[in-house]
Structures are given as C-alpha cells and as structure tokens.
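Two quick folds needed for the group meeting slides. Do the first one here.
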Amino acid sequence: MAIRIEFSTGLKLPRKTQRWIEHLLSCLPKEHTRGIDRIKLVDEINAPRLKNQQQHSDLPGLYHPRQGTQPAWIEVAAGTLIPRSKPLLKRIFPRLSFKGNLAAIIFSLVGQHYYLTLRHSIKRGHIEAAVRAYTEKHLRIWHERQHSIRSRLFRPLQPKLERWGRSLQKRAAAERKRKESLK
C-alpha cells in the first residue's frame, strides 16, 4: 500500500514538494515503511501528548505510532522548516535548504518507526543513536542518487576527508577539555 501525502498547511511550499517526498520514500527499503499510512504536512504540530507550548512551536516532525486500529503516520511541521515572520534573509535560507531538511526529518521519523516496530533487538536506550545512524546512512544514499556525477568524482577522496574531520573533532574536543580544566 502506498503512503498518502496530505497537505494541511497554509504556507506556500515549493511546487515539487510531493514529488520530492515520493522520491525520498523510494530511496528507503519498502519493509522500513511498512505500516506507515500517511505523511501529513501541517503548519505547526498540535499533539495533546506534548506537554508545553514551546515543544509545539519548535518541533519539526512527529511520529505517531500505531494505536489500536489506527495505523502509524508521520506529521511534518512546514512552519518550522519555512518560517513566516522573520526578516527576508532568514526566510530565504530555510527555503533553499527545505529539500535537505525535509529529507532529514522524513528519514529520521521512518527510522524511528523502523526501530520501534520492526527491529526488536534494539533496546530503548539505544534507539536514539540507532535512528541517528539510520538517518545519516540514508541521507548519504539519497545524496549519492541526487548528485551521481559529483558523488563518483569525490568518492576516492571521501575516506581522507572523513579521517580529517575525525581528527579535527578530536582536536576540538581536546581544546574544549583543556579550556575547562583551566577554569
């Protein structure tokens, strides 16, 4: 069964949003999306299970697990991805990165669905790290499909760049630790 895409937002979204979401879902294995009924784009997430109003306004997406006969579904807040009441520059940059941010949110929510319902070998405390790794893996796959020529050109350099990034992170962590010890 195909996942329905519903638009319940008053925001002006890019024209190809539905096509982008369908392409994102085609990058995922079918068994990972099994059980998800729909993806709903809304202005802001209003879920009664969220405690305070601050969580409502900043939350970019929410996974609603299966409850009784109602299947699981995903809710994405377009108002968080494309803010309305900000200066021009602060509205342009989120629009330019809308596609990537939407991909990250959908991949993370599908990963959450996958690890909560289909993978029972993951313990509750380890789900967050597993979902983060799942999201990074599928974002990398999606990016390679989007930019196949660029990906093939930079593939030989990728291990060196990753090693360089890890060494920079280690150096930054050591510097932070050194500064904390001086205080």
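Then this one, please, same format:
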Amino acid sequence: MKKYNSYWKIAYIGAGSNLDKPIDQIHRSIEGLKKIKNTQFILSSSLYSSSPLGPEDQPDFINAVFAILTQLNPHELLNELQKIEKKQKRNRDEIRWGPRTIDLDILIYSNLVINNNALTLPHPEIQNRDFVLMPLAEIAPDLIVTDQKNVVDLLEKRKKFNLDVKKIINDE
C-alpha cells in the first residue's frame, strides 16, 4: 500500500493493559510506536489506573493516550498498531472488554471520519470512556471530538458517570 500522502497527520492513540506488568506493557507500546515507519511519536499522557469496563473479575487497567504524527493512512496505521499488539502477545480471541496485555486504538486521525468494517474514526466510544477522556484532556484539552464538543467539555458532561479512574503520580 502506498503512503496516504506526503503530509503529516496528527493521530491520537489510546492504550490500555491489565496483564503481565501493565505499566511495562504501556512503555513497550511507546517504544513500538517510535519504530513505525513514516511516523513520529510526539507526546504521552500520564498513566491512569481504571476499573475494568467489562467483566469485573479482572485486574484494573493502566491507560494512556499518545499523540503521533504520521504519513501512513489510517488503515496502515491500524495494521502497525496490531503488529505491536501481536508482538506484546495480545490475544485477539479474548473476551470482549476482558483482560489483555495491550490494546491500542486509533482514537482520532486528523479530522478524518471513517466507518467501515475495519475501522471507525473518530473512535465511536471516546465520549463514553473516562479512561480515554482524562488522559486525552491532559495532552489535547481543546481537541474537538464529537458534535463540536472538545475533550474537556465531554469530560465535564460525564463527571457524574465516571468509572474509578485515577492518575498515577509515579509510574516507575
């Protein structure tokens, strides 16, 4: 597949892990992102601990959001993220919203809107996930996400529905 174009596009990637040393898994995913061709790693949010969205009989998750610049098209980027997940032993046969070594999602890719079998952009659940909104608000508070609402507005609207999401002060 050819490059999408020669222009750099900003993308925001959500990361989550609750198996096999989750903080290490997040750090390993950053290293993987830094190795993607035609892509520059820009910024990471702090790490956040969150209660699981799915089955409750699993460990809490560690979450973060990353900003990258890329010349890859969204489907190529998705393919690269899935390679990182596979390298980190992500099991795609797992229970929906169940435990995982790493989950990498494209949250937003520039101002692009896509809805097909392989990819939906912006990610359709951003506004419903505090563990995405909180780290995203840290690195891109004015980012317009949905219905002309920015990240901070969406987070404020959701305050009364928050899962147990906490910023991790020291992630070492």
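Slide caption for protein two: The longest strand covers residues 61-70.
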